[in-house]
Amino acid sequence: MNKRGGILLSVLLIIFLFSSLILQLLFTYHQTADFSKRTIQLYQAKIAKEEFLLDYSPTEATQGIWYFDQGELQFEKDGKSIKILIIMEGKKYHFTETIKASVP
Q: Is 25 a domain residue?
């Protein structure tokens, strides 16, 4: 009776299963790392927008560029709203905010 063929197929099957498991784990890790990076960048963009809005006075320029350590923020005043474009590491984030009257 020849059992070598059965053992060879079993070993190949085990190698295939472990390889697919490792590839799945690596794929999941890369997805998680990419998601984390994009989430951090989104929150950095939101923080930059809020800092800009704290410093921005509606009586100032109607458009311009505001630089910060992670990238740049471009803004354009459009009536009662302000359009904000934040560029960080090649990614663009668009925001639109309404301008509220300041309380004296």
A: yes
